[in-house]
Design a protein that fits this description.
Elements lengths: L2 H7 L21 E11 L2 E13 L2 E6 L6 H9 L4 E7 L2 E2 L5 H5 L2 E4 L11 H11 L11 H15 L14 H13 L5 E5 L7 H18 L2 E5 L3 H7 L2 E6 L2 E6 L1 H4 L2 H8 L1 E7 L5 E8 L3
Parallel strand pairs: 3-8, 3-9, 6-7, 7-8
Antiparallel strand pairs: 1-2, 1-4, 4-5, 9-10, 11-12
Helix pairs in contact: 4-5, 5-6
The chain binds adenosine-5'-triphosphate and magnesium ion.
Length: about 290
């Protein structure tokens, strides 16, 4: 049965939605300020004294750094999944110390590895997420019908409406990543934290996902932080780059100023070239690992 058919069986009207997931709805931009954030696991501190003075809504920040640098740990801390010292202020309101549920109304997080063995369809997972935590700050509870309507509109925008009725445990790796992204987006967050959202995607979906994340970030005024290992994608889609090395911020700024051979040598330990292609995009070519 097609998603549209099933949706109509569930009582979902096939009319243009009132703008929720359609392009072009402007929204007020949010602002995230991170001050002296320190966190880890038990007594082991992983991220030390991380300060990002102002991450502006409508902009994408790419969080880069080598394996084990602490990128996922930092995102978990921002999402409220790990205890942290310091300050995380969203639009001037302190998030540290708030309940996970209260934070989840504002901040959504897509983990690097999605949970396995969930016996729900893509649509059921989205509807469940919406009913458990209604969209947006202080959102009102949504009915089953509204939730299905919102979920289907989002799947259509992501180009995966054909997966609506497929079980999560039957999806390919890339399809699971797309479904995970849908779960992060469906609650209409103010802050969107994505941990390597393109790592399992083919070339077309990588571009499609980054383009959509960019559009939604602009339209909804989201503060978006994306962990990426593909520095070319970061250069192309990020407004702001933060490079984490061994739990501390090593470099921060615009892609052109941050993605330099010197940074790549120091933080990633590679000799690399950074050049512009014929389309004007920054290309990062790692030539060789450096000794030591
Ligand atoms: N659940 C955990 N318990 C204890 N230590 C952990 C846990 N998760 C990660 N770590 C440690 O924290 C450090 C940072 O890990 P993290 O996953 O944040 O790195 P990362 O930058 O996301 O790396 P990658 O690019 O490989 O995903 C590593 O030394 C890792 O071993
Ligand atoms: Mg990680």
């Amino acid at each position: 049965m097609s998603a549209a058919l099933e949706a109509s069986r569930m009582g979902v009207q096939q009319r243009p939605l009132a703008g929720e997931w359609q392009a072009g709805t402007p929204a007020a931009a949010s602002r995230l300020e991170i001050g002296g954030l320190t966190l880890g696991y038990g007594r082991r501190i992983i991220v030390r004294d991380c300060t990002l003075a102002s991450l502006a809504g409508g902009h994408i920040t790419a969080l880069l750094g080598p394996n084990g640098a602490g990128k996922s740990t930092l995102l978990r801390g921002l999402a409220g999944l790990l205890p942290a010292r310091g300050s995380v202020k969203l639009n001037g309101q302190e998030m540290i110390g708030r309940s996970l549920e209260a934070r989840a109304r504002h901040i959504t997080y897509m983990p690097q590895s999605l949970p396995q063995g969930v016996a729900l369809t893509v649509m059921e997972a989205l509807v469940g997420a919406l009913k458990a935590s209604p969209p947006g700050a202080g959102g009102l509870p949504v009915s089953g019908r509204e939730a299905a309507e919102l979920a289907l509109a989002l799947l259509e925008r992501l180009g995966i409406a054909h997966l609506a009725l497929v079980g999560l445990d039957r999806l390919s790796g890339g399809q699971r990543q797309m479904a995970g992204l849908a779960q992060a987006l469906v609650r209409k967050p103010e802050v969107l934290l994505l941990d390597e959202p393109t790592s399992a995607l083919d070339l077309r979906y990588q571009l499609q996902v980054m383009r959509l994340v960019q559009q939604l970030t602009r339209e909804k005024g989201l503060v978006t932080v994306v962990v990426l290992h593909d520095l070319g994608l970061a250069a192309r889609f990020a407004d702001h780059i933060v490079v984490l090395g061994d739990g501390t911020i090593c470099a921060e700024g615009e892609p052109e100023r941050t993605l330099t051979p010197a940074m790549l040598a120091e933080v990633y330990g590679v000799s690399a070239r950074v050049e512009r292609c014929s389309h004007g995009h920054l290309q990062i070519m790692a030539d060789a690992p450096l000794a030591g």
